[in-house]
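With this grant's support, we have settled on a layout for protein records. A representative record follows, to show the layout.
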Amino acid sequence: MAKRERVVRMSVEQPLWRALSGFRVLAMVYAVLLFSFGRDRFERPWVAVVFLVFLAVWTLVTLPKVANAANCTKRFLIADLTIALTGILLTPLADFDARSIDGTTLPSIWTAGSVLAFAIKGGWRWAGFASSLVAAANLIERGHPSRDTIHNVVLVWVSSIAIGYVVQVARASERTLARALEIEAATRERERLARDIHDSVLQVLAMVQRRGTAMGGEAAELGRMAGEQEIALRSLVSSGLVPATRVSEDAAEGAVVRSFGADEDAYGGTYGETDEDPARAAAGPCDLRTLLAPYSTSKVTFAEPGAPVLLAPDAARELAAAVSAALDNVTRHAGADARAWILVEDWADEVTVTVRDDGPGIPEGRLAQAEGEGRLGVALSIRGRLRDLGGTAELISVPGQGTEVELRVPRGRGRDR
């Protein structure tokens, strides 16, 4: 059973919170060093000492608060900004010349950390609010606006709003990416289920319809009901599973689907229904030849290398299922005398399986028409499987000259050495 895909969410904010924590500590140390080296200019150094001691304790104690968005509450942000504003307004009380001589305030660049916390937490609007209060406090502390003060105010205001805007964009991008990954995972899971339905239920319903119609009587009515259910199920499977881009690509490719068709008995019945799946029981690499050998019949020629073709069990099983889907097209669409050939090639960097037939080929545009009708054997059972393996499925059909399907699986994806 295929493993369900998990969507791993990544946080673009967490590195910002870690950077903010480091900035606050370094800014606190810087403010203490500024005071230590310029202590002589303070008329009341004890005011600065009391504030800086409190600032150091607050910074270290509140480090967990700036570790992530959940811990950084509004109450903490308000208290943190209040401390920064208080330090700015206390500067003239410790340094009488602070109003007349341009210089740093008591918290210095630590104030920027408080504003950045607003920006990371709430975006550019919160950053604009906090930086505006800091600007007002700086203007009050100076008493009159100077060129340096205005320069610092504008710098903090613009940079904090810019960072807040970037954070908002990053959050939106993260949500979009997470949603896209969820949609992709859900789509791939639906495609996998659709492949399983196509390879089992739809095949059985189609066979019941044909056999019932041929037998007549009550069996014919059973066949008619099976046909109705097949149409309904195909419509359900095809809804939303085949992107428009894929249909257009297939239409542009022209005739790229084989036109097989013969009775089931000539080709050994419905493919893929063996009594035992060796790949499921294999603990290590699986020999692809053991999965493809049962497909060899009087009308299907199987050519293989002399040495084992080892693939990871899941990859081998999916590749064999894609071959089975290709051969099912033989039983459905080619003439009664059509033959098919399976060729396995074990290259250094990839494993290639080619399925070729001598049927009548397919008219141009038939693939797109088939997908529109909900017949997704090529789109899901063949191409979808190879795409999930990281490989490719190339289909080439020339009207009157048969069809060739080339399945390629990269060695890194498909083999364990």
The two ends are 23 Å apart (CA to CA).
